[in-house]
Design brief:
heterodimer, A: alpha+beta, two-stranded parallel sheet, two-stranded antiparallel ribbon, 6 strands, 29% helix, B: mainly beta, three-stranded antiparallel beta sheet, 4 strands
Chain lengths: 139, 83
């Protein structure tokens, strides 16, 4: 994430004190030195509410991931019930795609990964995407 | 970015028009309005001030302090859980 120029924040309804001990007792055993990003204490759930991920019955923020661009607009989000974890490679792909679009004005078709062809939107492309992009390129 | 080390540290939480600090000057007391902001793609991210644990210390930060950079904000159900 650092090489992509992305700032990471994590958030749960745990207190900062719990974050500290989690870092000390478990995270530092997964990652040497522990995680280097700010761990937000959303004890009230109000931040989770603002992002639509707070589950009042359980008092927790469910798994949600938001990609925010340098203009502070949300570009992508993924919200899941908690039992399935994230796919970090897909997040990285989305970051690279949005950064490419922002830098070039091109757009990235389904299945795009860095190195694959992009599309240049415009009147000439309308109705002609079939010449540029084949369904097998989605995979 | 401030620092508060006490047991109970308040942070403003979501920063909407309704609870920005200078809204108290209006004649009518601000209605207790629960957060209605719903995050949507293509729209501004809901800003907030929060207490954080970072690298051994406690701090208070605003998400918009990182405006101008790409940001990934991840929510998860709880420390010490399984996934």
């Amino acid at each position: 994430m650092k090489e992509l120029g992305v700032e990471v924040f994590s958030a749960s309804t745990d207190s900062r004190f719990v974050h500290k001990i989690w870092q000390a007792e478990e995270l530092s055993k997964m990652i040497p030195g522990g995680v280097q990003f700010p761990m937000i204490a959303d004890a009230s759930g109000l931040i989770g509410q603002a992002y639509g991920v707070f589950e009042p019955a359980a008092g927790v923020d469910i798994r949600g991931r938001f990609l925010i661009d340098p203009d502070f607009n949300i570009r992508a989000m993924e919200v899941m019930t908690p039992e399935v974890g994230r796919n970090v490679n897909e997040l990285i792909r989305q970051i690279r795609a949005f950064q490419h679009v922002r830098a070039t004005g091109e757009v990235t078709p389904a299945g795009w990964v860095p190195g694959k062809p992009t599309l240049k939107p415009g009147p000439d492309l309308a109705g002609n995407v079939w010449k540029e992009w084949k369904p097998e390129m989605a995979f | 970015m401030g620092t508060s080390q006490g047991c109970v540290a308040t942070a403003a939480g979501p920063l909407t028009a309704g609870n920005m600090p200078d809204s108290s000057t209006s004649a009518q007391p601000p209605k207790e309005e629960r957060i209605m902001t719903v995050a949507r793609v293509g729209h501004p991210a809901p800003d907030f001030e929060a207490n954080v644990y970072l690298n051994g210390g406690f701090e208070t930060m605003k998400l918009s302090d990182s405006k101008g950079k790409w940001i990934v904000l991840c929510f998860y159900p709880g420390d010490f859980t399984f996934v």
